Amino acid sequence: MPGRQTGQVTFTPGQTAVIVPVTAAEAAVSRYRLRYDRSAPFGVPAHVTIVFPFVPVDRLTETDLLDLVGIFAMQAAFEVTLSRFGRFPGRPGDPETLWLAPEPSSPFRRLTAALTDRWPEAPPYGGVFDDVIPHLTVTETAPAAVLEQAQAAVGAALPISARIQQGSLIGFDGVVWRERAVLPLAS
């Protein structure tokens, strides 16, 4: 089955990602994410990405899953606050990406580093960035006027606080992204 095209991103059946869902942000960002985030229409919740793309489904072993669960179990559950926006520049001709900065960011960075150490063949974002900045995407395809509107609307709901208790391994089945494993953090 061919991949599903979403703007400039093609999701391929069997592709996986490790994310930390941030359910508390959903009400504030879903209106914009559903229209201007390439992954939201395919079932990906509001989240902070830990590693994408991760090991493809057909190459994931039982040992991989146990190691993944173990890495998350070594990180304590934590509180996070989303109160500040950031922007990533777009490529020439592309819009900026509007995102929320999770504070603290260190638990997300530790999880990304641990997964990258264990699975060096699956660097975050394919290894194209030297520094992976933890973020929750609000818009990535919105024109400038909508980007400003989104920042004002979402900004009115800030700060958003959440207790992070788990991550998720998600996989693309050719139609939508589905949770394949819950990754609990230590309580």
Write a short abstract of this structure.
The protein has 187 residues and is an alpha+beta fold. 26% of the residues lie in helices and 32% in strands. Strand 1 and strand 2 form a beta hairpin.
Keywords, separated by commas or semicolons:
4 helices; disordered N terminus; four-stranded antiparallel beta sheet; 187 residues; alpha+beta; Cyclic Phosphodiesterase, Chain: A; 10 strands; globular; single chain
CATH topology: Cyclic Phosphodiesterase, Chain: A
Look at the structure and give the mean pLDDT: 94
Q: Could you state the oligomeric state of the chains shown? A: single chain
Total helical segments? 4
In CATH terms, the superfamily is Cyclic phosphodiesterase
Structure description:
This protein has 187 residues and is of the alpha+beta class. Helix content is 26%, strand content 32%. The strands form three sheets. It has a four-stranded antiparallel sheet. A four-stranded antiparallel sheet has the order 7-6-5-8. A two-stranded antiparallel sheet has the order 1-2. A hairpin with a 4-residue loop joins strand 9 (166-172) and strand 10 (177-184). The relative contact order is 0.27. Residues 1-8 have low confidence and may be disordered.
Chain-wise SSE layout:
Elements (H helix, E strand, L loop, with lengths): L3 E3 L2 E3 L4 E6 L4 H11 L10 E5 L10 H12 L4 E11 L8 E7 L2 H13 L17 E4 L4 H12 L4 E5 L1 E7 L4 E8 L3
Antiparallel strand pairs: 1-2, 3-4, 3-9, 5-6, 5-8, 6-7, 9-10
Helix pairs in contact: 2-3
